[in-house]
Amino acid sequence: MGLRGEFSRLNRLIHTTEKMTQPSWRQGLARTVAEAALEQIALSFERERDPWDRPWKRSLRAQLEQGQTLSDTGRLRRSFTYRANDRGFIVGTNVRYAAIHQYGGVIRPKRAKYLRFRLAGGSGKRKGGRGRWVQTERVVIPARPFVPEPRLSPRWEQAFADAAQRYFQAP
For residues 24 and 86, what is the distance between their CA atoms, to the nearest angstrom? Predict the structure, then answer.
């Protein structure tokens, strides 16, 4: 007596399981999920919302110029990259001021009694010199997270699951 039947699905499962043991396959999965993370960061900037879809507090510059919060020059928005290997991935930026926007904080002068800077204003970027000068002892920057910490948000979890599913189903 022998076992008979259609084994193509079982053979595909065996083949996929064998592929999963290969470092190059795992690195490809890590790259796919990392790219989904970059898409989620871009979505936060586009929608001006944190990873849990709560709106960011609108910045004074965005209010004065009818622009977007955290998108004056676009430098921060475009700076995110990733590194992936067969054990996982890391997403990051080399823009120094990213942390103050992710976590919030207070900026105080280091060598003077006051901070002095030009506010946004007019129709151009604040570097155009159209806003008025202000002087203050500190500036409070509210947290406007673009990366979920310490745990993934539901939106990010779904994006990662969808990306992994597409990768698993690829030939």
Answer: 7
Q: For the chain, what are the domain ranges?
A: 9-169
What is the rounded distance in angstroms from the CA atom of residue 68 to the CA atom of residue 74?
Answer: 10
Structure tokens at 155: 């939106």
How much is the mean pLDDT over the chain?
91
pLDDT value at position 33? 98
Among residues 67, 60, 131, 71, the alpha carbon closest in space to that of 95 is found at 71
Percentage of the chain surpassing pLDDT 90?
Answer: 70
Q: Which two tokens stand for residue 162?
A: 């969808």
Angstrom distance (rounded) from CA 87 to CA 84: 8
pLDDT of 124 > 70? The answer is no
Q: What is d(CA 150, CA 152) in angstroms, rounded to the nearest whole number?
A: 7
Separation of alpha carbons 115 and 133, rounded Å: 10
Q: Which two tokens stand for residue 88?
A: 């996982």
Question: Taking a C-beta distance cutoff of 8 angstroms, is the pair 101, 41 a contact?
Answer: no
Helix axes 8-20, 23-47, angle to 10 degrees: 80
pLDDT digits (tens, 9 = 90+) for 35-69: 999 999 999 999 999 999 999 999 988 988 889 99
Would you tell me how many other CB atoms lie within 10 Å of the CB of residue 48?
17
